Prior knowledge:
Elements lengths: L6 E2 L9 E2 H7 L8 E7 L10 E11 L3 E8 L2 E8 H6 L1 E4 L1
Antiparallel strand pairs: 1-2, 3-4, 3-7, 4-5, 5-6
Amino acid sequence: xxxxxxxxxxxxxxxxxxxxxxxxxxxxxxxxxxxxxxxxxxxxxxxxxxxxxxxxxxxxxxxxxxxxxxxxxxxxxxxxxxxxxxxxxxxxxxx
Length: 95
């Protein structure tokens, strides 16, 4: 018997479902130890007119559904995790 195709989505209802194969194809350059720049979209308000929040860091680990990024901000550092489904829709650069 053929196995049913599974879909990954973060919204309960989507017109164009995203398959795991599509996500893995776009994220295949992401590997632990590489530097990454992620452009996280934000909602525009009167106070803040910037469209994106830029996150620059190093990929620490890759899990089944998310990517763990270590971000250095000045002298301090913090960790941030991003879902693979969100990274599929956002812009990012890997070095």
